Q: What sequence folds into this?
């Protein structure tokens, strides 16, 4: 089974005691316990079955939470694991992913991009059940694709070490590993720790990386590098997951998609402020506040009615009192007369 490594390991009871920061107008943190419990609740209603108690880790004084759930296996080489993350310090979005826990070496190979990923925005708790449900469906489909991926890696033979040297440099460019880990991956390739990985195939080479990944103490870093590894190995071996996915689960995809009810027509008197960010763009709370404030000011200017121009009536000439300029002029004349006298 895969093992989660974090600064502090807790159980569900202890997780409930972790406080959640107060929400702001545009940032709504999700309690760690709520996220993990929501995933567990939906697992009970799915085809998945837990093989052991969920592993839960905390870091940054409880501000960040990571979890890993090992599921009972339906495969000979691996079991499916479901992982996730949450943050109370605005450092990353809430997310859930699926991975393969390889029996032989007890490591985790994340084989797909995040099945569910969302920022802590307004109504995030209302969206959470549907997000988790759709995420579990994606993980189940990716597990079927991963069956073929592993077999494809096993059949892909690596002819000589010159290919390995080339792959290592490319893996560094793609942020799979750093330069300091290249000698360790190379050593594992030359002297496999397990006889199952003695064949000179991409599957054996994959294990060299995942063995090294065990040294990463940050679960977020481990998961992102593992996903990058799957991506580059798909490219090296020409594994087309899109084609495999379409071939394996075309009907199931349709059946798994949630029904989309006809949306209600809502009359909006004030146009909504919409800000579209790119996938990798991080927008801070202060920046959002500024965006909304500017939009409100523009609405006020546009909505403010124009006043009718009216001509002020001219003052009538007559004994209406002396003006200020005339009074000041007379005072100066009086002062000069006194000085002369």
A:
């Amino acid at each position: 089974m895969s093992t989660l490594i974090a600064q502090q390991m807790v159980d569900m009871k202890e997780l409930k005691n972790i406080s959640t920061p107060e929400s702001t107008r545009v940032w709504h943190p999700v309690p760690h316990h709520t996220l993990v419990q929501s995933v567990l609740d939906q697992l009970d209603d799915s085809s998945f079955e837990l093989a052991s108690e969920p592993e839960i880790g905390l870091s940054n004084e409880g501000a960040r939470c990571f979890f890993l759930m090992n599921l009972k296996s339906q495969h000979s080489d691996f079991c499916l694991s479901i992982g996730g993350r949450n943050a109370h310090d605005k450092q990353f979005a809430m997310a859930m992913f699926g991975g393969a826990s390889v029996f032989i070496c007890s490591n985790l190979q994340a084989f797909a991009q995040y099945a569910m990923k969302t920022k802590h925005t307004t109504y995030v708790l209302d969206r959470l059940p549907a997000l988790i449900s759709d995420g579990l469906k994606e993980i189940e489909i990716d597990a079927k694709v991963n069956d073929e991926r592993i077999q494809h890696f096993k059949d892909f033979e690596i002819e000589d070490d010159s290919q390995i040297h080339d792959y290592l440099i490319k893996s560094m460019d793609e942020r799979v590993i750093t330069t300091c880990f290249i000698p360790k991956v190379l050593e594992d390739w030359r002297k496999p720790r397990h006889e199952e990985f003695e064949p000179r195939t991409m599957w054996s080479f994959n294990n060299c990386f995942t063995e090294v990944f065990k040294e990463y103490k940050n679960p977020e870093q481990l998961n992102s590098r593992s996903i990058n590894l799957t991506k580059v190995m798909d490219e090296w071996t020409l594994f087309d997951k899109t084609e495999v996915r379409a071939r394996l689960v075309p009907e199931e995809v349709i059946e798994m998609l949630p029904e989309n009810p006809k949306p209600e027509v809502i009359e909006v008197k004030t146009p909504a402020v919409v800000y579209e960010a790119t996938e990798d763009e991080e927008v801070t709370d202060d920046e959002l506040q500024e965006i909304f404030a500017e939009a409100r000011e523009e609405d006020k200017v546009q909505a403010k009615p124009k006043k009718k121009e009216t001509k002020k009536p001219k003052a009538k000439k007559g004994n209406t009192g002396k003006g200020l300029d005339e009074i000041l002029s007379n005072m100066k004349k009086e002062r000069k007369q006194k000085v002369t006298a």
Summary: The radius of gyration is 33 Å. Residues 74 and 80 are 8 Å apart (CA to CA).
